[in-house]
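Field guide to reading this record: the first block holds the primary sequence, the second block holds the structure written as discrete tokens, and the final block holds curator observations. Each block starts with its own label. This record concerns DNA-binding response regulator, catalogued under organism Paracidobacterium acidisoli.

BLOCK 1 — SEQUENCE
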Amino acid sequence: MNKVILADSQAIFRAGTAKILAMEDDFRIIAQCAEAERLLPALDAFRCATVLFASTLKLELPDFVERVRAAGSRCIVIAENGESPLPYLSAGVQGFLHRGVSGPALIDCVRRVAAGERNVRAAGIGAVQPPDEDLVGARVRDRLTPKEMKIVALIVQGCKNKEIAMRLGTTEQVIKNYLRSIYDKTGVSDRLELALFTIHHRILAEAAAAVGELMMQGT
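BLOCK 2 — STRUCTURE
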């Protein structure tokens, strides 16, 4: 059984990763952390595990890797798209994933690192679908209305229906109605699946990110 510790400040990504790994019989999630301060004690409490940590936690890599080794564990960084694997591999991190990695690539990387291998799944090395081949993402993006795209952007950010309704100046019931339409167009059944679908289809993810940025700017 491969024991896994997940550490990511972005709740929707952490939940999505946990859901993907939980579908495999040989993985067991033994701890989840949203902050670096909670991850470090977890290393001591749960030894001989595979640690997936987000680069956004801003850990002191040499010290962190040493603590991972002292606990008999191995670690994989979940990096932001565009980040280079070199600083992490040089520091002794055994696995590297970009945040947009596919579910099968994530599972394969964790298995390989848990088995003692080093594994890199960076953009351009078969881990992430190239934007010009993301036909599904492009098709869904074109089917969504501007209001639906705003809702998708807020879902990916982890917003609940009440917060989305407040941001868009409407009611929760209206948001629920929009979500039913979005689910039909994307072929998903709930908000977590919608977030994962968006993340794993680059063109749709980029469109949602652009809309989210515009909303933050108030335009």
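BLOCK 3 — OBSERVATIONS
The first strand starts at residue 2 and ends at 7.
The chain has two domains: 2-121, 132-216.
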